[in-house]
Amino acid sequence: MASSQHVLLSPAELAYLHDSLSLTPPIRPDGRSPAQFRPLVAETGILPGTNGSARICFADGTEAIVGVKAEVERTAQRAGDDTVYLEGGEGDEEDVEDGEAREGEDKRKGDSAWVEMTVEIPGLRDDDSGTAFLAAMLSEALLADGEFAKRLWINRRFHWKLYLDIILISPPLSYPLPLLSLTTHLALLSTRLPRLKSEGDEDPFFDDDWAAAPYLFPRTPTTTTTIATTARPPITLLVMAVGNNIIFDPSKEELAVADVALAVSVTGSTAAPHADDAEPEPGRSLRLLSIRTIDPPSRLTPPGVANAANSAYGAAGTQKMLEAATAEVEAVEGVWKAPRGGAKRVVLGALVQKVLERGGVVDEVLDALEGVDLG
Amino acid sequence: MASLKRSLDSDPFAANISSKVYVRSTKSGKVQKIVREVYLRQDIPCSSRLCQSCLKTAPRDAAGRPSPFVLSEAPAGTSVFPQGHYLVPDTNAFLTAMDLFEQSAAFYDVVVLQIVLEELRNRSLPLYNRLISLTKSEDKRFYVFFNEFRLETHVARQEGESVNDRNDRAVRKAVAWYGQHLTRTGAKKVPAVVMLSNDRDNLRKAKQEGIPACSLTEYVKQLKDGEALLDMIPEAEDQDGIKEKRVGAPLYPEYFSMSKMMTGVKNGLLHQGIFNVSPYNYLEGSIRVPAFPKPLLILGRENINRAVDGDLVVVEVLPKDQWKEPSTQVIEEDAITKNENPDAEDAGDLVSQKERKALQEEVKRTHSKTTEGHAQPTARVVGVVKRNWRQYVGHIDQSSISQSSQQGRKQDTVFVIPMDKKIPKIRLRTRQVAELIGKRILVTIDAWDRSSRQPMGHFVRSLGELETKAAETEALLLEYDVQYRPFPKTVLDCLPKEGHDWKVPQSMDDPGWRDREDLRGLLICSIDPIGCQDIDDALHSRPLPNGNIEVGVHIADVSHFVKPNNAMDTEASIRGTTVYLVDKRIDMLPMLLGTDLCSLKPYVERYAFSVLWELSPDADIVNVRFTKSVIKSREAFSYEQAQLRVDDDSQQDELTKSIRTLLALSRKLKQKRMDAGALSLSSPEVKVQMESETSDPIDVKTKVHLDTMSLVEEFMLLANVSVARKIHEAFPQTAILRRHGAPPKTNFDELANQLRVKRGLDFSVESSRALADSLDACVDPNEPFFNTLVRIMATRCMMAAEYFCSGTQAYPDEIYTHFTSPIRRYADLAAHRQLAAAIGYETVDPSSRSRGRLEAVCRNINVRHRNAQLAGRASIAYYVGQALRGKATEEDGFVLKIFSNGFVVIVPRFGIEGLIRLRDLAEPEPAAEYDAETYTLKTTGSRELTVELFQKVRVRVTDQKDETTGKRGVKMELVSVY
């Protein structure tokens, strides 16, 4: 899938847009500042039958819902250090001591197969390459650091299997990656798993009280988890650059003239107060999980042709080929020319730095999502 | 970036919708979040006859009538609520004292809240069922109020509130609403609405909120004659405070957590099964688990760990050095713990000195053995999955009563000895010891703490004096869970309106005649025991022109009267079978049907379901057909009458001739069966003769077997087999069939060994055929009874026959069902329906097609059937005892089982078994040496005897009343050894 629907702008309009975005500071068509997000509507708990769900509606009219369902699954056993021997009777006490001895180390293990993600975009087949790419990017961000799957660990014999169903319910007006990512983030924030009542490697046995079910991403660090920080699920943002300007949350028109577009996955975690850090820093620490370049639609837009070379304006037919060739090479003022070549290193570096900036855009987005009431 | 959340408040219907969210864990290990939407209504009536406003809005049925209101307009008052009151109990009130609510003296006008009903159902299904039957009884005026669905009484769970607190709040809210609602009716005397709870916290909160509330004890004290009811409030409840005081060290090991047990069971490290106590030794239990062919032994109090016979428990196998042999000693709880003091609970050690001594004997014996092969795996109980406690009949152990308590109303602790020897003594607190001594009483077990040696129970009601006929009969029925209450009105409503005047319609155009064959012209007669009123079956035979013989078996057409899924059908399926006691019959179907309309009485026309065969003169089936019919029985014979008639050569009428034909055919059929390897098993059968006026037992007779009995037997068998084939062919997946499960070969090991050692007989159980032959070979030329004795013992090794629903299971070629007694067995009724559908007479009712439902029916009737048999036997045993009362007779008996300190003798004349202990032989107790290899017990000292297995002995049978326990039983004394 092209990263956007075809934009119905004339080469001249494209050129104009490109120029105004290249200014310092850039002038965006809707008057936003470069790092400003468009307003969005978000709610959680819209699907009562799921373990967690969310809906987000972007200002451009695109809307997505995500449902998270969890199932208990038996962990495939491999012989080795992890092999579980079920002791009965007297053996138990020994087992307990053993467990205490190893308290310090995190014996929980995760596996990326424990998360299954499906993305549905209206009008596209589910095996469409674009859809598959989207799903891959989203799950890649989620599983990149291996910390997420650890949360699904129940005991050495069982784990939760998480099914994420991501559905775009509006037509794909703009590249839906950020929308889907934010909705997934919110759904995961609202996800709760039944409270475990059994101990050790017994067959899991859960509290039937839903109100007692803990969140997959608890608000305050609990002492039972060995993850000392309140980690959050990742978000993937779309960032683009025009010239040296870095622009967040591009609209589809802006994306049409991007020199480079990146999908950046970031995770944020607040350091727990009791963590060993010598000087606990305020705010959250952001971690870059992945960067993917997106083919910007600008590369697909046909180049503009100068009037002189345009046969429609009466230029000689014999000259046409030659003229066209020059049009490809030379930049003509006011004539749209699709960008060529990759992103500049400097721009990329600045872009990443901008994303990871403390108190920056990502912080703002995470704060906003955190503020959504988890009903 | 701004975000918004749409608020649900904008939904105009939000007020009427609520939802309930919970987590459900399925058996297969799935864990699901379940959301139930609750639509709140305002038309759920309060059902008080005082209330007019609810009557206006109450939902109506199809005929436009609201269901009648339940709660009385003038309910009874108490000393605190003289204006009258409605009760609203919370869940723990029902859980702890259901017996109170079943009282007829008090507890009327009760509002059962939906939330309470649901909670009760989760906590205890039997109690739930009892409550449901209470709500159905019209005179108790119990009303189920759906508080969760009524807008005003619905309670949403608050943040951080526990489920229990929320439910308690829901109860209080409902009580408060009822109170306000009734005040608004403007009645002159507005009844108080009183919450009944045993939860202190709930009571305290109710007081704060100004809601009338009582604890059970407080409430019962307000009642007139409440004193007597106080006993029925169980122990645990008012003990909250006392519990802390009595911190006795735990006597029993703690149970594993449920999840730990389940994991263990799944992994095969622990085993789950039903715990059974040995009838001869209360300290020995066994458990049959799927993993092993032989049951595991559980020895001693500590290993039994508070399991009671019938509980579903989880056990752990003990290490091999703790394996034991099953006990060869008789250990009876009465004898060993006779003088225990029920008050002295903190005696410290769990196993009393005497028990320990009994155990030492065991160990000595095991150690003296050189061969180790006899030791059997033992296990210990690590947890109880499901208690199967019921109400137990018993009597107070007189020796457990302290002298001071004989008078006065002080609460006292006594032991109750249950009638069932397999149930441990129950500790009971009562204020009415003096009244209860010498009575049969009904008690329940409430709890069995780790710190208490015996289970704790409470008194339910008294059945009457020991040894009175009424009390003993009721005791029997209760012990075997026989439903003996009269049929409710809803059932009687299903009977034909004409009552006894019902007749087969005259006109053949009547719908009743549809597809029925007119067999009124056939010479049909019935042969049954004397005095039989519910005649299920009748027979006929007539020669055919081609030399073959037509034989018909006609069975009462019960399915015509009992339609599937009505109240009568449900009741019958619950009862499962008619229960025959010596002096009483507890019917499965109402009398009108059983003894009149369905019964194939002579001289009147009746609907029947007929099986008609064409048999060759050699009794081979040429063909068979099934049809609904109308018959007219010519005569109802008793076995004896029929036998006389057949034997009397002067009788040459058609009817007698046809019986003779049947008799000849039945002999051939029997021979064929025997040739095919059919088993002939045996159980001692006796008949108690009653004096006709007083129905007091006067004599005991062994049943005589007549040819006419096997005539009827053979043809019923033939009909059952033919029907089984037909319905199995028509419904291979759902046919109701009956089978004798092949018993595990190990069941016969002991018997085979005994026969080999004692008689040098080879006993083979390779196949049914081999078994039949072996049994035939077990003859002692000098002792005709020996063969019967072996058959009796073999029968006990067999698996009980059971009903099952056919399907994918493999079963023997000879399939079998029950078809011939639909008046007294539900399985037959089900088979009738299936056969009717198989021959296209009617369509299949969904209920007789659903496998799940049929399996449930089979499970129930199997249990009922077994219980009915046991109750019948127990009834005979009781009457035999009564018939012997005051008489002493000498009889021949046989040694059936032998222990190191006694032996069991069976007396065929009375069909009873009795235990003779060493100490009964002589005073002082003779020393004895028991040789388990040869099953011989040699006594020396005060009396010198050698007792062997299968030996014929002479015993004196007397009745004896044990003064300490107040129990009358048959006592046997050894006179001599043959």
TrEMBL record, chain A:
For the keyword Cytoplasm, the answer is: yes
The molecular function GO annotations come to:
mRNA 3'-UTR AU-rich region binding
Where the protein is mainly located, per its record?
Answer: cytoplasm
Which GO terms fall under biological process for this protein? exonucleolytic trimming to generate mature 3'-end of 5.8S rRNA from tricistronic rRNA transcript (SSU-rRNA, 5.8S rRNA, LSU-rRNA); nuclear mRNA surveillance; nuclear polyadenylation-dependent rRNA catabolic process; rRNA catabolic process; TRAMP-dependent tRNA surveillance pathway; U1 snRNA 3'-end processing; U4 snRNA 3'-end processing; U5 snRNA 3'-end processing
Feature: compositional bias, Basic and acidic residues: 99-111
Protein origin, superkingdom: Eukaryota
What does the similarity note say?
Answer: Belongs to the RNase PH family.
Name listed for the protein in its UniProt record:
Ribosomal RNA-processing protein 42
Q: What organism does the record attribute this protein to?
A: Staphylotrichum longicolle
Automatic annotation (TrEMBL), chain B:
Q: Which GO terms describe its molecular function?
A: 3'-5'-RNA exonuclease activity; endonuclease activity; RNA binding
Keywords from the UniProt entry: Cytoplasm, Endonuclease, Exonuclease, Exosome, Hydrolase, Nuclease, Nucleus, RNA-binding, rRNA processing
Q: Where in the cell is it found?
A: Cytoplasm; Nucleus, Nucleolus
Q: Which Pfam families does the UniProt entry name for this protein?
A: OB_Dis3, PIN_4, RNB, Rrp44_CSD1, Rrp44_S1
Lineage: superkingdom: Eukaryota
Record domain S1 motif: where: 881-975
An example GO BP is:
rRNA processing
One cellular component term (GO) for this entry is: nucleolus
Cofactor dependence: Mg(2+)
Task: Cite the PANTHER family for this sequence.
Answer: EXOSOME COMPLEX EXONUCLEASE RRP44, RIBONUCLEASE
Tell me which family the UniProt entry assigns to this protein. Answer: Belongs to the RNR ribonuclease family.
> What name does UniProt use for this protein?
Chromosome disjunction protein 3
